[in-house]
Amino acid sequence: MTPLDILGRYWGYDAFRECQQEIIGSVLAGRDTIGLLPTGGGKSVTFQVPALMLPGITVVVTPLISLMKDQVDNLLARGIRAVCIHSGQSRPERHLALDRLRQGMAKILYISPERAVTPEFIDELQSWDPALLVVDEAHCISQWGYDFRPPYLRLALLRRRFPDIPVLALTASATPEVVSDIALRLEMRSPQVFSRSFARDNISYIVRYGDSKDNTLLRVLAGTSGSAIVYVRSRERTARLAEMIREAGFSADFYHAGLEPHDKTERQDLWKSGRTRVIVATNAFGMGIDKPDVRTVIHYDLPPSLEEYYQEAGRAGRDGLPSFAVMLVGSRDKALMTRRLNDEFPGREYIAAVYEKLCVFLNISVGAGYMQAYDCDFDKFCKTFRLQPRPALAALRILTRAGLIDYHDDLDGRSRVMIVADKRELYYADLGTDGDMVLQDIMRCYPGLFADFVRIDEDSVCSHLHISREQCYQALLYLSRTHIIQYIPRRELPFVLMPQRRIETRHILIPRTVYEDRLAQARRRMEAMRDYAYDSSECRVRRMLEYFGQNDAADCGKCDVCRARDKRGKEKDYDRIVADLIRSWGGRLTMDEVREVFPGERLRPAVAALRAMMDRGEVLRSPDGTFRLKL
């Protein structure tokens, strides 16, 4: 089968998008490849199609734990065998995935970077006949990228161990500097680079200035139609703005990482179905949510970089229809960006102290903890040691980049269940009254329970059966103890994986590349974001495209800068026409004389100017049809 045959059979499309076929052809030819596809550009297809054509398995390294299972579920629904392995799984879940790989029951493996580079995994991968290594979110491997992840640096181990298989690196936003660094860090051999233009011709980029952001936000929503996302930088503000928007008569809700899993799912589904028009959210919202008809994305707060702004704004108009990306800019935003940068890079001594306090909090002794995962109640941690949340979180992320810990808060918090008893055992088993009801409801609502761990929502089960959450929980525990199911209660807390043993605080080393160099780079990104927001001398789109290395870009003609320039040009043309009309006046002016003074294409704007002058009372029209200038 050809790639196009595969695309039609499993995805139902009869043509590839721009650059997809070229990337697939390069991979199938065995070449190292870098694909730069904008948000919504169809990155996944570029490795999923080759995965079905190559003889062995395709290994996809991605840092987004919360999306792995969604990707796997989507592939399984299309009849494509896939599994995932990451640090947030239980041991039974990992063993099940490994068994399927050993038995040749999977074509695609999604794996987190810290798991992908363990010696045990690399040794076992040898027996699975790997055919393609895919590095998704590849900007994470570059210290110059906006989301650098230290485990990515070790992915070159896979390249060295399997030198004959091609490597495909994918990202939605990368500067030329980052692209070069990706190729270097992955030890790519003369990589083919395929890049779609970062321009989104259907999106109008608009900046609105003023300190009354609430009023501006409501005016933008009133002046546009269709689904909208409003991005803010704090969880507290999501609820306040959503309430304000509702009071103004728009359907709205809010979303952030701290919500209960069932709340996230419900709000997401209501928005995706169009029953909620506006979702006010932190940047936790949007990854993996493919809603094509988002008409407006509004940034209430300035993002820290153009990379993040481009990704978030790019969630508008994925269906190709006209859409808007609006940024609200106030006089305090410059100072807020500087303060946020300072919070993101606390002092070295503070970072070392946070490491020591974290190990005490998690009860990890010196020399212990290697490759162990620990639940981490971040709020309790901060309260216990009287730490401010923002710099404390920044310290954890810097420690993660330095490879000393691996802090995860992008969780899929839903519980998981798998039926381990066979159907005959179920028939004769004593399930108990609550256990029988709960199991019957789960089997009715969640297919695939006999084959794999399936995510369930206990609140939905409670609602169906009219029982309490405690009853549901105890019933699931009973079914698990009697070996009817394997039940993994939902993970409600962030967790810390220790990629190395705990070291003494005096031996902590934060490399210059992780701290000083990244601080300098973050400052440059912040300045580029400020220039975009505050400098109205250049087309917004051209400025952004030049930042991403696309130096041949023309003015877009649709952003607020281009529209203002066009309006000024029309006003100058209008003033010139009026002056010509006045000079041509000889007391009275006939329409034939107007045609004589303004022949051809100049007639229509001259008539428009004449009508405007009449509307303002500057020109009077006589009964005989002549025009008289009112002095």
Describe the fold and architecture:
- The chain is an alpha/beta fold.
- Helix content is 45%, strand content 15%.
- The protein contains 27 helices and 22 strands.
- Strands 3-4-2-5-6-1-7 form a seven-stranded parallel beta sheet, with helices on both faces. It has a six-stranded parallel beta sheet with strand order 8-13-12-9-11-10, sandwiched between helices. A three-stranded antiparallel beta sheet has the order 14-19-15.
- α25 crosses α27.
- The N and C termini lie far apart (81 Å).
- The model has no long low-confidence stretch (mean pLDDT 86).
Brief summary of the model shown:
With 631 residues, the chain is α/β, with parallel strands linked by helices. 45% of the residues lie in helices and 15% in strands.
Topology record:
Blueprint: H1 3-11, H2 20-28, E1 33-36, H3 45-53, E2 57-61, H4 65-77, E3 82-85, H5 91-102, E4 108-111, H6 113-116, H7 119-125, E5 130-135, H8 150-153, H9 156-161, E6 167-171, H10 176-185, E7 192-195, E8 203-209, H11 213-223, E9 227-231, H12 235-247, E10 252-255, H13 261-272, E11 278-281, E12 294-299, H14 306-313, E13 323-329, H15 333-344, H16 348-361, E14 373-375, H17 378-385, H18 389-401, E15 406-408, E16 415-419, H19 423-428, H20 433-445, E17 454-456, H21 458-465, H22 469-481, E18 485-488, E19 495-497, H23 516-534, H24 540-547, H25 560-584, E20 588-589, H26 591-597, H27 603-615, E21 619-621, E22 627-629
Parallel strand pairs: 1-6, 1-7, 2-4, 2-5, 3-4, 5-6, 8-13, 9-11, 9-12, 10-11, 12-13
Antiparallel strand pairs: 14-19, 15-19, 16-17, 16-18, 20-22, 21-22
